[in-house]
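re: that complex we talked abt at group meeting.

here r the seqs, copy pasted straight from the sheet so there may be weird spacing, ignore it
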Amino acid sequence: MMKSYRELSPSPRTIMTPGPVEVDPRVLRALSYPILGQFDPEFTALMNDTMEMLRSLFQTDNRWAYPIDGTSRSGIEAVLNSLIEPGDKVLVPIYGRFGNLLYEIAERCGAEVVALDKEWGEVFEPDEVIAAIGQEHPALVLMVHGETSTGRMQPLEAIGKACREQGILFVVDAVATIGGVPVETDAWCIDAVIGGTQKCLSVPSGMAPITYNDRAERKIAARKKVERGLLVPGDAVSGNRRPAIQSNYLDLSQLQDYWGPARLNHHTEMTSMLYGLREGLRILLVEGLEERFARHRRHEAALMAGLEAMGLTLYGNPACKLPVVTCVTIPEGVDGEAVRSMLLSSFGIEIASSFGVLKGKIWRIGTMGYSCSQKNVLHVLGALEAVLIRHGAALPAGEGLQAALAVYDA
Amino acid sequence: MMKSYRELSPSPRTIMTPGPVEVDPRVLRALSYPILGQFDPEFTALMNDTMEMLRSLFQTDNRWAYPIDGTSRSGIEAVLNSLIEPGDKVLVPIYGRFGNLLYEIAERCGAEVVALDKEWGEVFEPDEVIAAIGQEHPALVLMVHGETSTGRMQPLEAIGKACREQGILFVVDAVATIGGVPVETDAWCIDAVIGGTQKCLSVPSGMAPITYNDRAERKIAARKKVERGLLVPGDAVSGNRRPAIQSNYLDLSQLQDYWGPARLNHHTEMTSMLYGLREGLRILLVEGLEERFARHRRHEAALMAGLEAMGLTLYGNPACKLPVVTCVTIPEGVDGEAVRSMLLSSFGIEIASSFGVLKGKIWRIGTMGYSCSQKNVLHVLGALEAVLIRHGAALPAGEGLQAALAVYDA
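got the structure back, here u go
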């Protein structure tokens, strides 16, 4: 007798983590539309729309802006795999967990990786990075824009300009910031950027939008290798001058031939996810980038005011706070995981813990995309107060919500 | 003034390609449900359901059966990256385009790859492969089960048993066959299998279900490397004995720690795609594997009878025909692409062309998953007849549908 599985029926959640966050219902609807074949002209038109909208999102004139078919991490790996040749010297200034991930992936690409470490809760002074560049003469510099593990944001413009002057490729992980905070690819001289869908874009995890300029493309083109299965008798196997890209799935030289007019077969495009991404981008552009950034700032201010009025301490240097993630020090004597668990089970609210040295020390509350709303901010403040009181914390009851409401009234 | 983008409104299609095919409406509905956080206990329960259902699908008792977050190609690369160490000798018997892809990916993993080539339209006698194994003594043998480029299916059991006796890892690409044709992982002694979602499972492209046994796991475990960002002060960096897996995103040693009880953070699971995959698997198990395989055989028979009654010639050796793909020789003097184009524009039907040496020579018609239905088979036969007549082909009008209906009546 076959085991029968329960009907899918997910409980409604208020998701206030640094991602994944709640998905806009219009995006959920887009996911449910019947699919088109990947080479159907109607579908390739949707792919082209998506590229165009991504250029607006990334604030770039780059030719190449398209999603990698995988989670954000796949986008990072696609860019690093394609841009790092074995033996390349790579500088990675690290100020949190996701800087470590850049280091880790660069190492697996065969790079000679130099880490520059910064105490968690801070970011780098641009001059510190520029000095290290002068010492190390790397071929690439890799940095995280918004570090969700610590809730910090790194200023990039001065570093980008220094890299450009010295002919160094500057690669930025903007997974957490894209769509919530300005990411000015061209103005900041970034050669390749990786974004995420499941955070400020409020599209489910599953694609990683990237963009890269012609400086990056030249390095990729020199490593191009025609796939064995696509050679036609008479074709010469391409004699690539530089070491081939080690991944096939994440090979940008092949992917751009698929996203470009050649439409060379590679993977089977994720049709439903593409519907969702296109819809998420359309919604974002209808709202407007500036309006969207201002919305993220407004709800961040209300959340911070509420948390501080409750007597909680925010973690990290406020001068470099990431606007879309607020980190809260877990009060002495309170079991952080018990609080998270009760928030979820009693209030249907999810907030996040953190990683490594911050595990058990802070909570992380996201205000990203569709989750970044007055309703959600007020809901989390009220619930957190109740749960903390339930866990024996002494709080000025009622103050958190009043402080947040005052911000909204201002 | 911002450019405005058209509302998403895909035209209804009858998709009779070898994938992607039409998605079951229940799966589309599942995609549209609000998401859960990736570590929400409700969500991890859905992940566990999915693993259990995948074991039934793969007909295996393997502990590890879970999806890779990417298209089918990412599943292939994850398995090959994790199982092939640089310098490993790998035998790839090739009888179509997707065998070439296995070769290509194995080469990028640093393998010493030996190809065994077979004329397209045929498959290997198991003894040919076993003899090559005896000569080459590879560490791994990689084969495609169902080759959609030529519409052929390779018998695997004897090859699997020979590999097992000689301690060789046997890896099978069952992307095209899983859920439409029996794939008996354990009985056929396959060490690792990669399936596809967008074909006989009728879930959109975006995940690649895989399974592997403890023989494969031992090789993966020996290459395990703890990610830099997950080390806690005091942890020793793991001294892996064997060369580390070159991909981080597609590293099965990390992925199994995420899918297993440790739930170690890796990527952000594709929540909506997981809903879809779980629903697709649930539907498949409710239908029953045997019933589903029989359904695929029934509609294949009707389609073949209809095509032959129209006077068309089927391509390839019938003894090794892949039941879920029927290849048709494009009649002399007919422009294959003009026919495909009219089928799409006038009838909303998509059928496929082929690759490499078969480009312009054959059409490929899929009968997979939700697309594999009497309604669709009859629709494609009627439409193809009309379009061929419109293109000047001399056909016995009306015969195709009558022959197919006769099969359904039998």
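couple things i noticed - Chain A touches chain B through 95 residues (CB under 8 Å). The mean pLDDT of chain A is 95.
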